[in-house]
Write a structure and sequence with these properties.
The complex is a heterodimer. Chain A has helices at 9-20, 101-116, 149-163, 211-214, 243-268; strands at 36-40, 48-54, 57-68, 79-85, 126-128, 132-144, 165-170, 175-185, 193-201, 204-207, 219-226, 229-236, 241-242. By secondary structure, chain A is of the alpha+beta class. Chain A has one domain: Ribosomal Protein S5, domain 2. In chain A, the strands form 3 sheets. In chain A, strands 1, 2, 3, 4, 5 and 6 form a 6-stranded mixed sheet that branches. Chain A has a 4-stranded antiparallel sheet with strand order 10-9-11-12. A two-stranded antiparallel sheet of chain A has the order 7-8. In chain A, strand 1 (36-40) and strand 2 (48-54) form a beta hairpin. In chain A, helix 2 (101-116) crosses helix 3 (149-163). The longest helix of chain A is centred in the last third of the chain and has 26 residues, at 243-268. The model of chain A has no long low-confidence stretch (mean pLDDT 94). Chain B is of the alpha+beta class. Chain B has a single domain (19-235), classed as GHMP Kinase, N-terminal domain (Ribosomal Protein S5, domain 2, 2-Layer Sandwich). In chain B, helix 1 (86-99) packs across helix 2 (126-140) and helix 2 (126-140) runs parallel beside helix 4. The model of chain B has no long low-confidence stretch (mean pLDDT 93). The chains are: A alpha+beta, B alpha+beta. Chains A and B meet through helix 2, strand 11, strand 12, strand 13 and helix 5 of A and helix 1, strand 9 and helix 4 of B. Strand 13 of chain A pairs antiparallel with strand 9 (190-200) of chain B, so a sheet runs across the interface.
């Protein structure tokens, strides 16, 4: 990445000095999230869509469904496909072209958190075993990157899946009748996956970094928490961690996820 | 933790599969190694440090590590379409992150160390086997390293933590099902890589990290022996 576009060194040094004193530029404590807002139904051709904001970071998520053959190893289950794109419109840093590694990782980590928490009841998305099942596509796009796209992606995906309606399905032709949504929601379970990434900057551990802060992150550990259980974890970047530090991260992430669960639920009412 | 838990292959919960490690398996490479854990076989080859190509990717402040993880198309039951898929791209990057902390790269400005990992036969734990082979291959190549990296998949089967999962165990369906937790550590006990898929409490995950530490210490001894054996063998010629 071009050095010119990242946080300038003097600013970085100041951010680190602040963090050592337990402070941040925007007045938050190290383990606080920015304001989270969720706007529903932002694109009406989709089966469900949301715009999620964390501070100035903004992503849109759309859910589409289609009917296709199941995978050979899960003949009685629907399919889930989560993809993420970092749109060039959302930051000077993102270029057009095939997805870069960051976007691939963003999609895969979000996919695993949702899949492993068993948030979607995939068995109920089976139409005819071995022949026809629903595939749920969750497509995530960045609109404005001010840090922490990783956690915003899961919040957006979960919110969009919660409000999405199943499209109508014509059994005779075997085709989906797009544009005619049924009254039925996508079959979900009681799970509520929430991803919280903990970043290591110098000796400090923080959550929900701004873009300026995230540039300084030496290591990110993303945990997807589901009501007190951990569904997925991914340590990213090369910086090594002590065992005790890693254990501390499990707790920080769990605490933070409890706090933002409430905020997300309020937003979805 | 239930002591009565029986594993399919009769191993104790903290028992590794039979491991074989050997360096020098690819004569063309600057360093190479094979690491086998049960029916999972990985080979790794190191080329470099050498001048970075393409040139625009050169970094004048330090050398770079480039990792490429690949599963051979016939290494699993259902043939894999050859070429890069998103899983392989992620594991390549994870492998780089796992190994980079032990390398002294600032001695090699504008240069690159290429590590190629190929999975010959897969029975779960391929990323861990790949990292173990790659760490060995880097040491065999004589790349300056501060430490070795050892990698193990800890698993939770229903409620019991076990080490070094097989594919059969990865597909365990009873009770709470399987949780897969690959972890890589340096011999000095730093975590350089960790991932998780499944369902586990924060408290039990702490135990899983401790279990990984013990397993990595055993793997380290095997890696060390493989390197020593190579030296003795060639020295005796």
């Amino acid at each position: 990445m071009d050095k010119v576009m990242t946080t300038p060194e003097p600013t970085g040094e100041r951010i680190k000095k602040y963090l050592r004193e337990g402070k941040r530029f925007d007045g938050r404590s190290l383990l606080d999230f920015r304001k989270i807002t969720i706007e529903k139904n932002i694109s009406k051709k989709s089966e469900g869509s949301v715009k999620v904001k964390i501070g100035k970071t903004e992503m849109v998520v759309g859910v589409k469904l289609d009917v296709s053959a199941p995978y050979a190893d899960s003949p009685n289950k629907g399919n889930l496909m989560v993809t993420a794109e970092m749109l060039p419109l959302s930051s000077q840093r993102f270029e057009a072209g095939p997805p870069k590694f960051d976007a691939i990782e963003l999609g895969r980590v979000t996919d695993r958190g949702i899949r492993e928490s068993k948030f979607i009841n995939l068995e109920k998305l089976c139409i005819k075993e071995g022949e026809k099942v629903w595939t749920v596509f969750v497509d995530i796009y960045s609109i404005n990157d001010d840090g922490n796209l990783m956690d915003a992606a899961t919040i957006g995906a979960v919110a969009a899946l919660k409000i999405a309606k199943m499209p109508k399905y014509d059994e005779e032709s075997g085709k989906v009748v797009y544009g005619e949504l049924s009254e039925n929601n996508i079959p979900l379970t009681e799970s509520f996956p929430i991803a919280v990434s903990v970043h290591k900057i110098g000796e400090s551990l923080i959550v929900d970094p701004t873009r300026q802060e995230e540039d300084l992150s030496e290591c990110r550990v993303t945990l997807t928490n589901n009501k007190g259980e951990i569904s997925s974890l991914q340590k990213s970047e090369s910086k090594e961690l002590d065992v005790e530090e890693m254990k501390n991260i499990f707790e920080i992430s769990e605490e933070a996820s409890k706090k933002i669960l409430k905020k997300i639920e309020d937003n979805l009412k | 933790m239930t002591e009565k838990f029986k594993r399919g292959d009769g191993r104790a919960i903290d028992e590794l599969r039979q491991i074989e490690a050997k360096v020098g398996v690819v004569p063309n490479a600057d360093g190479s190694a094979m690491y086998r854990s049960g029916d999972t076989i990985a080979i790794a080859a190191v080329y470099g440090p050498k001048k970075m190509h393409p040139q625009h990717q050169q970094d004048p402040s330090r050398g770079q590590l480039r990792c490429d993880y690949n599963m051979l198309s016939f290494s699993v039951s259902e043939r894999i379409k050859p070429g890069k898929n998103r899983r392989a791209m992620e594991i390549s990057e994870i492998t780089k992150w796992a190994l980079e902390p032990v390398l002294i790269l600032d001695k090699y400005p504008n240069q690159v160390i290429d590590v190629f990992i190929d999975i010959i036969q897969a029975d779960a734990g391929t990323r861990c086997a790949g990292i173990n082979a790659a760490s060995l291959a880097l040491a065999h190549a004589g790349v300056p390293m501060k430490d070795m990296v050892s990698s193990i998949a800890v698993g939770k089967l229903d409620k019991t933590l076990v080490v070094d999962l097989t594919k059969e165990e990865e597909d365990f369906e009873e009770g709470e099902g399987p949780t897969d937790i690959p972890i890589s550590m340096t011999h000095s006990g730093k975590i350089t890589h960790m991932q998780l898929d499944g369902k586990i409490s924060a408290e039990q995950l702490k135990d899983a990290v401790d279990l990984a530490k013990g397993a990595c210490a055993k793997i380290y001894e095997i890696q060390k022996k493989a390197l020593k054996d190579a030296v003795d063998f060639e020295g005796g010629k």
